[in-house]
Amino acid sequence: MKGYDFVYFLREGVKSIFLHGFMSFAAVSVIIACLIITGSFMLLTINVNMVIADAESSNEVIAFIDESLSESEAMSVGSKINQISNVAKSVFVSSDQAFSEYCERLGDDKDLLEGLDGKTLLRHRYRIFVEDVSLTKETVASIEKVPGVAKVNASLEISQSIVNMRNVVNAVTYILAAVLAGVSIFIISNTVKLTTFDRREEIAIMKMVGATNAFIRWPFVIEGFLLGITGGALAYVGQWAIYSYATEKIIESIQMVKLLDFEAISIPMLLAFLTAGFVVGIGGSVLTIRKFMRV
Amino acid sequence: MVRFSGVYKSYENGTKAIKGIDLRIDDGEFVFIIGPSGSGKSTIIKLITGEVRPTEGRVIVNGFNVGAARLSSIPKLRRTLGVVFQDFRLIEKKTVYENVAFAMRVIGANRRSIAERVPVILDLVGLSHKAHRYPHELSGGEQQRVAIARALINNPRIILADEPTGNLDPARSREIIYLLDKINSLGTTIIAVTHEKDIVNSLSKRVIAIDGGKIVSDKTGGYYSI
Description:
The structure holds 2 protein chains of 2 kinds.
Chain A: H1 3-19, H2 21-58, E1 60-65, H3 71-82, E2 87-93, H4 95-106, H5 118-121, E3 125-130, H6 136-144, E4 149-154, H7 156-197, H8 200-208, H9 213-253, H10 262-290
Antiparallel strand pairs in A: 1-3, 1-4, 2-3
Chain B: E1 2-10, E2 16-25, E3 30-34, H1 41-49, E4 56-61, E5 64-65, H2 74-78, E6 81-85, H3 96-106, H4 111-124, H5 140-152, E7 158-162, H6 170-185, E8 189-194, H7 197-202, E9 206-211, E10 214-219
Parallel strand pairs in B: 3-8, 3-9, 6-7, 7-8
Antiparallel strand pairs in B: 1-2, 1-4, 4-5, 9-10
């Protein structure tokens, strides 16, 4: 393409955006809407997974050590526990430590334990954190087999709930992502089709005066590119604003929750939005004008 | 030069539009193609522009074999032709000047040659004073003159006019035909498809009558009669 041609195509593409103002506005709006809906859903999924991961990491298994073992013997059991494949981390808690933690939890009622001490009342124990919650049951069975372990307590129901929740969120994510992608492509391609249909007469005239397909296509490609990139950039700004507002409101009402900071994913998000706008804009234009070229 | 040798054209729906036509139109001729609706006149125009290809036989236009030409060479064929339609087919969002310049731009002409040639052609069709008007601001006759200017701008060897006066009153129709006659006198071949008896009879030109996809008469200095 000659430089003079490029300037011409660029000028025609830009001019066409304004000449067909309403359709350009419709195309950009549809791209923005589809990207924000998909983006919001992605962010929601990431946050739900973060909350689940947080719950997973705080879900602990307690292994009680046989009371016949001394404290130093009990501490040596930890290395065997750590060798179990799904164990992420184990923390030794002596009977005295456990007793003082228990007293703290009782608060004002700690007088009830007066005259007692940890060694007679409680066992040494390990707080064990697993890597994959779905394997908790198998991990508990392995821990029970470790010599010196008297009993293992695990909230298998909570583990199962976390696993179920994660499976549901993942399944819903995949289904909704596929549906949203399909709907977005359908809406965007129809919008582009409408904008191009509006100009089929113009394309027919261009063909009749001897324009090559490339000459006809370039202004549309540039127009599609500009509309797609504009849609992607505006959607990104909109997504940022909506997400920041929503997370602020959620944190105000549920203070314990930890949410993803938009800045942490701002660059990949921007790239994803611009790429989606680029692909949709150019792809939509090229695919749609193809059928009007056969004159 | 246009040459049809044993040309047949059937469409996918089974319609046999052309049934064995042999025809030769030489450079510089002014030819009227007449015939009732559905006789095959428009198919002849489409065969000349490469919009459709013959089912059988050979169509040669300005040295291009339309039936055998690759898709990529059809634009080159069209650059040797100028086409004028009954409904003008101007781009509504471009001015008169832009509509005409556009046809030059399409074939890769540079800015300077466009700026030099467009005013000359607009002057030839008598529209210099309306160069910056939009098509909807013009009368039907003026719009058709813009279409003729656009057809002429690339100095084509042939101008194809498909019912060029179909949307015009008798006075404007005469103006357009005289304009085409003037262009023909400058050396361009004119092939005009028409229904209008008065127009055909007013000029003593070659008249080819088509009916049922066949040539039923071909007379120079002829009159409208089928």
